[in-house]
């Protein structure tokens, strides 16, 4: 019974000058967000949220995770997702919720003890909603980041055709299992598509080769070999060469070259192409 | 080996919980090595050793932390990193330090190779409680 009363109080606070409060809330929020969110959009978002909140409180919701709050949570989720996608900061997102507290402050000035108590209780609920907003925001950003990471995976592994029957993969950055998988698939597919018998894996852009990277490289080379292609690894810098030796990794039976140019020369020779330098030619 | 940190230079702690963390650790070790003016070869060796041990912490230790910072002893400066996990520990250290032996699917060179890549290597493991590996690379 006590709960019921306080719920009515909370609703009372929010419905004192009904429309007026929602409007000043929207004014407050649009002041902080500037013109980056359309006025009409913000107006719609916050009015829906306001009505959902009043309704949830009327049904006796006491915290964010209450069942009656599901509508509010859905609206907040949508709001924070949109903000995260549009590139707003977490504070700019959470302010949408916290601004309501500031809007309610004037009520305290000539309010009774009940109003103060109700304000504090509502404040707690709004704090919870604010945190919920930030959580959803972070989650959305995380999703965005992993989606971008996946895009990078795709982007950073082009297989290029250097000559008839000679393809190359210039590797740049860190090789983890996921990326190597992509590289391997692309390389093997390119071998089939182009009918190439020579493949060059250039690791000039790989900053460090540890056992996992080496293992991935070895597997790729063995797989290419099974398809009848010969693989050359190029771009091994002096420091990487010394690290590989110290680690004790054996590149037995795998042809390695210091530069991509050397590897290409070898690949051409293997496929029966002769390079002839003309006298008087420009170098 | 106790924490060998230079007075006034607190190490930073990095979590090892996902494979993405390994990238951050490599970056951090690279920055430290450059600050310390390790040669390019030594930088690469230190980064590679850190990469091996961090991966071991993640895969075999079930995750943990690494503390990394600069150290000095007898006028020499260096980069140190301490990898710590509370995983199952290593039951047979001698076997684990053998080239080519692996309990997972790797090449079996990570632990033994890391020891050859750095100047100081200390492994402390208690089965059932966890493993602590300390590595230091000194400036020549």
Quick structural gist:
With 283 residues, chain A is of the alpha/beta class.
Indicate how many domains the architecture of chain B comprises: 1
CATH architecture of chain B: 2-Layer Sandwich
Main-sheet strand order of chain B equals 1-2-3-5-4
Largest interface: A-B, 20 and 25 residues
Give the amount of beta strand of chain B, in percent: 25-35%
Distance between the termini of chain B: 22 Å
Helix content of chain B: 25-40%
Taken from the alpha-carbon principal axes, the silhouette of chain B is: globular
- Relative helix content of chain A: 55-70%
Overall average pLDDT of chain A: 84
- What proportion of the residues of chain A form beta strands (DSSP E)? 5-15%
CATH class of the largest domain in chain A: Mainly Alpha
Q: Please summarize the sheet with the most strands of chain B.
A: 5 strands, antiparallel
Give the quaternary arrangement of the chains. Answer: heterodimer
**CATH level-4 homologous superfamily of chain B:** Histidine kinase-like ATPase, C-terminal domain
What's the CATH first level of chain B?
A: Alpha Beta
CATH fold assignment of chain B: Heat Shock Protein 90
The largest pleated sheet of chain A is described as: 5 strands, mixed
């Amino acid at each position: 019974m006590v709960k019921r009363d306080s719920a009515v109080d909370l609703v009372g606070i929010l419905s004192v000058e009904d429309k007026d409060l929602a409007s000043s809330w929207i004014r407050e929020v649009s002041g902080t967000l500037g013109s980056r969110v359309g006025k009409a959009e913000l107006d719609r978002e916050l009015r829906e949220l306001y009505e959902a909140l009043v309704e949830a409180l009327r049904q006796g919701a006491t915290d964010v995770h209450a069942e009656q709050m599901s509508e509010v949570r859905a609206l907040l989720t949508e709001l924070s997702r949109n903000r995260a996608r549009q590139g707003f900061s977490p504070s700019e997102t959470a302010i949408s919720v916290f601004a309501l507290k500031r809007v309610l402050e004037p009520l305290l000035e000539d309010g009774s003890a009940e109003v103060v108590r109700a304000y504090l209780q509502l404040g707690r609920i709004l704090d919870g909603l604010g945190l919920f907003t930030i959580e959803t925001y972070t989650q959305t950003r995380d999703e965005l980041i992993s989606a971008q990471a996946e895009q990078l995976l795709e982007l950073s592994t082009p297989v290029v055709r250097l000559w008839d029957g000679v393809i190359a993969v210039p590797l740049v950055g860190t090789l983890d299992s996921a990326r190597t998988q992509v590289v391997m698939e692309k390389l093997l597919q390119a071998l089939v598509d182009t009918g190439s018998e020579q493949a060059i894996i250039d690791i000039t852009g790989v900053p460090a080769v540890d056992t996992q990277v080496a293992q991935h490289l070895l597997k790729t080379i063995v797989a290419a070999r099974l398809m009848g292609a010969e693989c050359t690894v190029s771009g091994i810098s002096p420091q990487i060469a010394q690290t590989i030796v110290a680690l004790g990794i054996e590149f037995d039976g795998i042809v390695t070259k210091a530069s991509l140019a050397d590897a290409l020369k070898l690949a051409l020779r293997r496929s029966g192409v002769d390079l002839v330098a003309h006298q008087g030619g420009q170098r | 080996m106790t924490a060998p940190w230079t007075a006034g230079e607190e190490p930073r702690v990095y979590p090892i919980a996902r494979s993405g963390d390994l990238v951050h650790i490599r970056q951090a070790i690279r920055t430290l090595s450059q600050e310390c003016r390790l040669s390019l070869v030594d930088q690469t060796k230190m980064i590679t050793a850190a990469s091996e041990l961090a991966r071991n912490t993640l895969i075999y230790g079930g995750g943990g932390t690494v503390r990394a910072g600069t150290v000095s002893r007898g006028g020499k400066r260096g980069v140190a990193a301490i990898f710590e996990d509370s995983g199952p520990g290593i039951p047979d250290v001698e076997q684990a330090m053998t080239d080519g032996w692996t309990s997972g699917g790797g090449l079996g060179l990570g632990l033994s190779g890391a020891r050859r890549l750095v100047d100081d290597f200390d492994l402390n493991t208690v089965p059932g409680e966890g493993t602590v590996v300390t590595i230091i690379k000194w400036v020549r």
